[in-house]
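Input sequence (142 aa), recorded before submission:
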Amino acid sequence: MRDVNRGCIVKDSRLRRYWKPLLMQWCQLVEQYCELGVDDAPYWYGETANTGILASACFKCGGAAVVEAKRPKGHGNNKWTGRGDLYIIWKKSTESVEAKFRWHSLWSPYDISKIAKEHLSYALRNVEEIDIADNSEDLLYS
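Predicted structure, token format:
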């Protein structure tokens, strides 16, 4: 593999134990794909491709993961079964991941920070729908 500067910051110390190695493994898998492909990168294919690679990284880090797993959503009397983008299982915890992907031209006349905040707000609303009664951690990446 090429010597690429990469890194990640996991602010929550409770999550850092699993997520820092997971994200570093995700970076390695993206690099591996890019080295094997011809002018190609997996993130060009959107949310599902990125989530699948994150699931693969999870297995390589000793966990397990299911993409598009059924998850209880809603709160109180307003509950339904929905799908989470990724369900991760570690030895002592489980996590639901809601992923969002959006293309935006850097040459667009629109304010990219405003668009990113709107997109993040939409993703956070999706995370809030997840029923966390099962004691899983709910995460978001975009």
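Checked by second reader. The chain is about 40% helix and 25% strand.
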